[in-house]
Amino acid sequence: MIRSARSSARSTRGRPPWWVLALFLAPALLLYSLFIVYPLVSALQYSLFTWQGTRPLGFAGLDNFTRLFSGVYGDRLWRAFGHNMVFFAGTMLVQTTFGLAFAVLLRRARWGRRFLQTAYVLPHLVSPIVVGYLWSLMLSPQFGAVNAALRAVGLDALAQPWTGDPALALPTLILVNAWQWIGFPMLLFSAALAGIPPEYEEAARVDGATAWRAFRHVTLPLLTPAIGIVTVLTFVGNMNILDLVYAMQGSQGAPAGATDVLGLLFYRTAFNNPDPGAIGQASALAVVMFLFIFGVSILATGYLRRKEAGLR
Amino acid sequence: MPENRPVILAACAAALALTATTACAPSTGGGGEGDEATVTVWSWRPEDAAGYKKIFAAFEEANPGITVEFKGHKNTEYPTILQTGLSQESGGPDVVQLKPYGPVQAFIEADQLVPLDDKVDLLEWPEETVDAARGKGDGKLYGVPFAVQTFSVLYNEKIFAEHDIEEPKTWDDMVSAAKRLKKADVIPFATSGKEPWVLAIMRETLGATRAGGNGFAQEVLKGEKDFTDPDYTASLKTIADLEPYLPPDSTAVSYTDAQTLFTSGKAAMYPGGGYELAPFRAADPDLKIGSFDAPPAPGAVIDHPLTPGFADGSYGVNAASGNKEAATKLVEWMATKEFGSAFSKELGQISAVPGVTPDDPLLAKMQADYADHGTPYMQGVYFGYGDPMGRDAEGAALASMLLGDASEKEAGEQIQKEISAWFKPEE
User: Fold this and answer.
1) How far apart are CA B246 and CA B114, in angstroms?
2) Which of A108, A213, A266, B258 is the most exposed place for a label (fewest CB within 10 A)?
3) Do B27-146+312-335 and B149-310+367-419 have matching folds?
4) Which N-terminal stretch is annotated as signal sequence (chain B) (predicted)?
5) How many CB atoms within 10 Å of residue A307?
């Protein structure tokens, strides 16, 4: 009795009054509302109006949305969506897999761990626009270092039009993107690995498991939460990708739209569009993208939670 | 915490005001009426700042009390910046550089520009130039065009001389010259297959005669023909047939790569606009550039060369400007020969003001050719008013043809499908 009364007294005494809490929460809440919530809500509002330049004319109902999905606009939307999905699948395959491999190998590294960790994360510090520009210089068929190097060692057959062939352009973008961001899954996996007691794997090894089996059946399942987070964050990042594609393939997603993604489509619809109704169109696209990304992220997070609960 | 709401709102407003005032340089200067006024001019060409300073000095001298401030923005960010700038209640620009034809319409429709019909008289100016600044809906004038761009085949005079090539008079001459250059390891035509707008300009430059020039454009506008027309699709094929003479892997060649191929002497010809001369000469001051109009393509509807051209944009007055009087004065002055001559001299371009001849002999030749056998650049002048723009649809279809993924018939059908999503012929 006495103890519980004392502890509850302590907890109320320890908690600052509401106005202090509000004071400390207000700046973050304010900025969040101003720069995240307000634009989101206004995009939803804009998408329901017909526009004449920057002036709303009247309520449009779902007209902007039906136009988005019809005729050539629908073709463009689905094509861009398909490219985003390929981008996500390719990134998971390359960036996440190698990120995990690097994290595992670095954990075992005897020397150079710090250096390599920094080296892999370093491209993060460069703007994607700059990365895109540098890589398009290197991949240029006439002046680029990549093809020149391949030809110099006699691999002429491998000197390809990396950014100009519809079959190669998207995979090339995925690789360049992975080059820049590979440090991110690596860091998350490193942190998760550090949280797994080495005794688990040692015990498995003592029982006669090979290194691969110990990793596959002991370590990997314990990484499920980290894999889940990386998957969701990669998904969100890839669905919204714009800057790198813009820097390397232009606003039209060259060649002939083979690298057009939703971000580029939005950019063109909003800012490269002579149609006076552009704001309504672009807002509708933004709302659709948001709902899709948000919805999938919620579902995926829920699914991963249940999976995690199953691990315990 | 309902008591807190006003506080949050007030802080919100304060933050908004703060970002608004710091982000944009105010141009309210002296308040407008007479005495002292600062006119802020926004442009997408920061590289012209020094030139404009000299140009506007003459205006400032003739109009004491008015100071003109030129503010160049990054080309790629300009559309976004202008959209916000014109929507501002105050602190926005007074005079704005406007993209021609289609892209200016959104601002006109939103009443963000001042109609200039009773202020400037452009009756002497060619229709297709003035159309660049006219409202599609109301036919009113909202800007004074500043430059005319013409397309032709630019060539490296030194390379032509080395290979004993003269300006071709027929298409066959041009193709056999291309063959000879290719054999000598020189890329005959530099172009960027990665940028749809560059390909569209290439088609206009080399293929306008095949499609039928302005006659074809007018027939499409009236609904008598469309982009599946065999003469038009044949003009697409004219370009695709030149593929062996383009840079290898042309769809991977960026715009800057194409420019560099020409200025570095790796490529002999460059189908493009007069606006390329200044950057080309900046890249290599010793480069001797010549220019010829493409001879009529095989099977051409028009039996003589054409010089396609268009107005590059205009200067208009922001309807929300606090300095409308001074701003209008400046824009009125931009329609005079005094401005035209200074513009042409300082910035090395063809002024849109009739009767102004550029000092540069090559530009003067382009201007004379345009006056003699000019034709409006079809996709820019007539089919840039909707989404997707004609030049983007045409350029993407041409890229597919260069990749071997589409026949000219399929390309024509694709272009027609995309443009007809918004374009309806006149009844």
Assistant:
1) 45
2) A108
3) yes
4) 1-25
5) 14
Q: How confident is the model at residue B38, as a pLDDT?
A: 93
Q: Tell me the domain boundaries of chain B.
A: 27-146+312-335, 149-310+367-419
CA-nearest of B119, B132, B37 to B332 is B119
34-93 of A, contacting B, C-beta below 8 A: 34, 52-55, 71-73
The CATH class given to the B149-310+367-419 domain equals alpha beta
Residue pLDDT, tens place only, A42-91: 999 999 999 988 788 899 999 999 999 999 999 999 999 999 999 999 99
pLDDT tens per residue across span A234-255: 999 999 999 999 999 999 998 9
| Sign of the torsion angle spanned by Cα atoms B187, B193, B194, B199 | positive
Tell me the residues of chain B between 346 and 385 that have a Cβ less than 8 Å away from chain A. Answer: 384-385
Mean pLDDT, chain B, whole residue set: 90
- In this structure, whether the domain defined by A63-311 belongs to CATH 1.20.272.10 is answered with no
Q: What angle do CA B244, B245, B247 make, to 5 degrees?
A: 95
Residue ranges in B194-323 assigned as alpha helix (H): 196-211, 213-222, 230-240, 255-263, 277-283
CB B128 within 8 A of CB B380: no
Write out pLDDT tens, residues B390-415.
Answer: 999 999 999 999 999 999 999 999 99
Residues 6+ apart with CB under 8 A from A241: A84, A87, A177, A261, A263
Q: Give A-chain residues touching B83 at CB under 8 angstroms.
A: 54, 271
Contact map slice: B 186-225 vs A, CB within 8 A: 193-196
ipTM for this prediction: 0.85
Q: Which of A33, A72, A165 sits opposite B418 (nearest CB)?
A: A72
Q: What are the sequence ranges of the domains in chain A?
A: 63-311
Residue B302, CA distances (Å) to B114, B169, B231, B344, B372 in order? 40, 15, 11, 31, 14
Q: Is B386 part of the contact surface with chain A (CB cutoff 8 Å)? A: yes
Q: pTM to 2 decimals?
A: 0.87
- Looking at CATH, the fold of the domain delimited by B27-146+312-335 is given as D-Maltodextrin-Binding Protein; domain 2 (3.40.190)
Give the pair of three-digit tokens for residue A140. Answer: 């240029």
Give chain B's end-to-end CA distance (angstroms, integer): 63
> CA A269, CA A277: separation in Å to the nearest integer?
10
**Pairing of β B187-189 and β B267-273:** parallel
Q: Tell me the β-bridge partners of B155.
A: B269, B290
Q: How far is CA B203 from the centre of its chain?
A: 16
**C-alpha to C-alpha distance for A286 and A278, rounded to whole angstroms:** 12
CB B265 within 8 A of CB B159: yes
Q: How far is A306 from chain B (nearest CA, A)?
A: 36
